[in-house]
From TrEMBL:
PANTHER family for the chain: STAGE II SPORULATION PROTEIN E, STAGE II SPORULATION PROTEIN E-RELATED
Keywords (A to Z) from UniProt: Hydrolase
KW Hydrolase (keyword) present: yes
Protein name according to UniProt: Response regulatory domain-containing protein
Matching InterPro entries: Bact_Sigma-Reg (IPR052016), CheY-like_superfamily (IPR011006), PPM-type-like_dom_sf (IPR036457), PPM-type_phosphatase-like_dom (IPR001932), Sig_transdc_resp-reg_receiver (IPR001789)
Domain Response regulatory: residue ranges: 3-120
One Pfam match: SpoIIE
Keyword Transcription regulation: no
Annotated Gene3D superfamilies: 3.40.50.2300, PPM-type phosphatase domain
Amino acid sequence: MAKILLAAESLDNIVPIKTILEANGHETMACPVAIDVLSIVLTEGMEIVILQLIEGSDRVLEIVRTIKNDDIAKGIPILLLANSEDEPDTITSGLEAGADDYMVEPVSNMELSTRIDTMVRLKDLGKNIKQARMVMKEEVDMAHYAQFAMLPTTFPYAEDVSFHTEYIATGDLGGDYYDVTDHEMGRIGIILADISGHGPSAALIVSILKSIWDSNKDMTRSPSMLAEMINDQLLRFTPAERFASLFHGIYNINDRSLNYVRCGHPYPFVLRKNGGAIERLEASGDFVGIHKDFYVEEETIRLEKGDRLLVYSDGLIESCDKQETIYGFDRLTTKLKDNFDMDGATLVSALVADTIEFCQGEKLPDDVTIMLMEAL
């Protein structure tokens, strides 16, 4: 049985309906439409609302909109009561405002009971959906917390190299992953990956990637060897439509060398302290997780004191404005030149701010991750 609120211009008009509902075991309350109906719905815990239409008045339409626009009450079913003299447009307006159904008076016991039973089922369905959403949100919140807990908060060899990072996920669960780990003997492992797609499936693949990374970070594998292993593991454990771009490097603080691979990933940049040059790292390689016949090039560069390495996900350069113009490499390069002398943290923040400004209020289409490493 349900708690039903009946609202009409005159309470005498709804006495027959109220009598039928109470005879069928429902708990009812009646009120004039002139008062704050929403407050009664919320304070009394009403589960169904029956509103009698008033010809030539928008009051009932206002009540319907108010209830349907309320975060708590919007799931409560609303039934309109019309009489045979009401214009069809009046009923249509009520349904367009958000009412769930209507009846034309006089109403028979059987017809009213049938409609109310439908409303009760709608109410129960809405409650079940709300509970399911709450459970799902709790699960997503926990996954969100776990995913961000995977990301590093401290970095090794702080006297020899500094790191500045920023990660903006477009949803509760992102598909970007980065990490910086101590590979011992002055070697620092760097990884930044971008999983195709979004949501729980992308987040699951991020966890697989992290597991592979953590289980191999103490080994002496070269970046190309690790990239090949990641490719094999993703082919084994992930569906064909899921793959990733990847940058992986090992920086040696002893000789300032950086061995790196770029597997389908956007070009990283090196900002040279002396001379102000901005160099693009162009070693090529396939995306990981697509082909068994995996191709990757490994290259080595040297980072002098003050040189900086910028690695990022494609969400940075593929962001669009309202005219669907892409941010692109050229704008990024210009921004790096214009802000070359900024310290690392400020530069990363400036890149994020420029991307958001460029989008002109549009939602970022993809996760954005930025990692800046400076050789000290």
